């Protein structure tokens, strides 16, 4: 083969490659974007994404850590509490949506249910382990009735003693999690109707297993993908009434599982959480990869649980204590319960001075969500929260002894999950296409590549008469 034919062949091939690459670079993104919109919209015809949204087939786990109380007698005498962390006790979490109803205004309503199954192989210990924690029935109720006349409080103390309920309870992990029989619960309900939210068994998570998170109505994204998954209402409400300001009562963002696609580094991650009774917002921290797929990592800002003095917009969540605590008593039957990050991470350092045995750090106690920005789908989730109880001496209730007022950690939990299977493969394909597009655009922008293309095209034109003559 003559050198001229080789030259013309290479030139033609190079020209075609440039044309194809240019077309792919500018037309490809539109095709990918159209595919994302088509698959992210909440539509039963989108088998892959709709099935994932409906039944959440990805591995999801809840890990529980108990703060075992080491010095209950000393606490009653007014000394500082000392605790040790026990766990994790890991539960596989099954979630699915039911009562799914599509509406004419491009929204869909549903209830999401959840079940928990103990995973001993992933746990340190088992549900038969025995731990000691403050007795919510006694110490929690004592704070709730502190405003009552002393005579009534003495009567309540008498009944605590009658039913052999002390200030601390020593039970198995399974009993504390999913409930144990308590005649005191029914008795208190008979005297103070509505005081206790449950009947019969009492446990920290007794209301969560086989339950749902309320009736969500979210936008499907039809005709406007920017609002897909955003909450239109929760239990028929456009806003809640737990807090003291309109801003704090707003229901913002999504239901906390997926977000609208095409996120940027300026995008935040708002969502409404029924478990915390409020909307929250995570902020962008850094880019990264998860299983080879590009992601943006979002974390909770320090202002999320800041008090009104440190962050005025949070004044509506008050009355406030130290920064780092969220008082959820208004949505938890007025029980003196507070949420925080584990080990009081990112909280006022003064909280650490009230309890021995805590050691907060970002790696173990900071929460994050890794999002695939083009689709708004979480790739890796690690949400962590701590449940705390305000305990103190209450005049008239002997069981409270001389307890110094302190926000006492009970447990902390981590909900974690990650994408795998068909959805992961689909996201990998999108990531590959994006990488190809980026590479092509990078090459096209290089000056020496453009010069080479110009030379090849010029040579091709010069060679044409000679080739035709032959």
UniProtKB/TrEMBL annotation:
InterPro entries: CD36/SCARB1/SNMP1, CD36_fam
Chief place of localization: membrane
Pfam hit, one: CD36
Subcellular location: Cell membrane; Membrane, Caveola
Cytoplasm as UniProt keyword: no
GO biological process: cholesterol efflux; cholesterol import; plasma lipoprotein particle clearance; recognition of apoptotic cell
Parts forming coiled coils: none
GO molecular function: lipid binding; low-density lipoprotein particle binding; scavenger receptor activity
Keywords on record: Cell membrane, Disulfide bond, Glycoprotein, Membrane, Receptor, Transmembrane, Transmembrane helix
PANTHER family the UniProt entry points to: SCAVENGER RECEPTOR CLASS B MEMBER 1, SCAVENGER RECEPTOR CLASS B TYPE-1 SR-B1
Family of the protein in this entry: Belongs to the CD36 family.
UniProt protein name: Scavenger receptor class B member 1
Organism: Hemibagrus wyckioides
Lineage per the UniProt record: Eukaryota, Metazoa, Chordata, Craniata, Vertebrata
């Amino acid at each position: 083969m003559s050198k001229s034919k080789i030259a013309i062949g290479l030139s033609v091939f190079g020209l075609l490659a440039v044309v194809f690459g240019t077309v792919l670079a500018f037309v490809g993104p539109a095709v990918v974007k159209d595919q994302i919109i088509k698959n992210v919209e909440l539509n039963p015809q989108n088998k892959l994404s709709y099935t994932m949204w409906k039944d959440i087939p990805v591995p999801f786990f809840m890990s529980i850590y108990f703060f075992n109380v080491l010095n209950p007698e000393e606490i009653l005498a007014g000394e500082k509490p000392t605790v040790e962390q026990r766990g994790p006790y890991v539960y596989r979490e099954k979630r699915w949506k039911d009562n799914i109803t599509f509406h004419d205004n491009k929204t869909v309503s549903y209830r999401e249910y959840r079940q928990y199954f103990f995973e001993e192989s992933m746990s340190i210990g088992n549900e038969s382990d025995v731990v000691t924690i403050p007795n919510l029935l006694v110490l929690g109720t004592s704070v709730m009735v502190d405003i009552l006349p002393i005579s009534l409080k003495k009567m309540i103390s008498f009944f605590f003693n009658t039913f052999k309920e002390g200030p601390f309870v020593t039970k198995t992990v399974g009993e504390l999690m999913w409930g144990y029989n308590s005649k005191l619960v029914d008795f208190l309900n008979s005297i103070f109707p509505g005081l206790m939210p449950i009947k019969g068994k009492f446990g920290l998570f007794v209301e969560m297993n086989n339950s749902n998170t309320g009736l969500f109505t979210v936008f499907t994204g039809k005709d406007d993908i920017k609002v897909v998954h955003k909450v239109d209402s929760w239990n028929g409400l456009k806003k809640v009434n737990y807090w003291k300001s309109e801003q704090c009562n707003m229901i913002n963002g999504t239901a906390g599982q997926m977000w609208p696609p095409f996120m940027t580094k300026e995008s935040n991650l708002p969502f409404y959480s029924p478990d915390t009774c409020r909307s929250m917002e995570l902020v962008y921290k850094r880019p990264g990869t998860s299983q080879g797929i590009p992601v943006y990592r979002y974390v909770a800002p320090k202002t999320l649980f800041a008090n009104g003095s440190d962050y005025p917009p949070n004044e509506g969540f008050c009355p406030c204590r130290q920064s780092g605590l969220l008082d959820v008593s208004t949505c938890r039957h007025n029980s003196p319960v507070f949420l925080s990050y584990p080990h009081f991470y990112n909280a006022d350092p003064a909280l650490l001075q009230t309890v021995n045995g805590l050691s907060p750090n970002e790696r173990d106690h900071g929460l994050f969500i890794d999002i695939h920005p083009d689709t708004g789908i979480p790739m890796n989730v690690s949400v962590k929260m701590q449940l705390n109880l305000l305990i103190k001496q209450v005049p008239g209730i002997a069981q409270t002894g001389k307890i110094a007022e302190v926000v006492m950690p009970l447990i902390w939990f981590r909900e974690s999950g990650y994408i795998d299977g068909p959805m992961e493969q689909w996201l990998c394909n999108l990531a590959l296409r994006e990488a190809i597009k980026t590479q092509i655009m990078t090459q096209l922008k290089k000056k020496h590549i453009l010069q080479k293309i110009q030379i090849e095209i010029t040579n091709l034109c010069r060679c044409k008469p000679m080739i035709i003559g032959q």
